[in-house]
Amino acid sequence: MSEIIAKRGAAPVAKQALFLLFRIGSERYALRATEVAEVLPRLPLKPIARAPHWVAGVFAYRGAVVPVIDLSALTFGQPAEARTSTRLVLVNYQPEQAQAAQWLGLILEQATDTLRCHPQDFQPYGLNNREAPYLGPVREDAQGLLQWVRVNDLLDDAVRGLLFPDPPRDPAQLEAQP
């Protein structure tokens, strides 16, 4: 009887999540699929003057201008290799819950596979890399370590301000302020 009571009080089993896998050089990384809006082939981009070297540019997509970063260049300083498996992945970037999500493009190498696993399989790896806060916990499997990339932590305040400037304020709101 106590086993039945214990089972009723047990926490619900966490559901598995789907992850998009990619590589930076020989290292493996993952994005949570719920953050991915669309996977596109690599497209021509318009460069942004005076932007950090890892900001690849912008492109027009479905009526919006979408900024794109090269995750390989951001992480290790080397641009992603132009392979047939290099993709432009649109993610829903939402660093603050109070704001609407915006598209951000990521250039990712070998972004062709997925993995279904429990998010709890990813564990902290013991480093506090303040220069790369987007690099989250790791999961070990037969191929080695797989690291979770947290989309909402990709950009610091300065680059966020460059790529996603504050929307222009409504003139009526400015007149109403004291």
UniProtKB/TrEMBL annotation:
InterPro entries: CheW, CheW-like_dom_sf, CheW-lke_dom. Gene3D superfamilies: CheA-289, Domain 4 (2.40.50.180), SH3 Domains (2.30.30.40). It comes from the Bacteria. Residues 16-160 form the CheW-like domain. Pfam families: CheW (PF01584). This is Chemotaxis protein CheW. It comes from Pseudomonas atacamensis. The lineage of its organism: Bacteria, Pseudomonadati, Pseudomonadota, Gammaproteobacteria, Pseudomonadales.
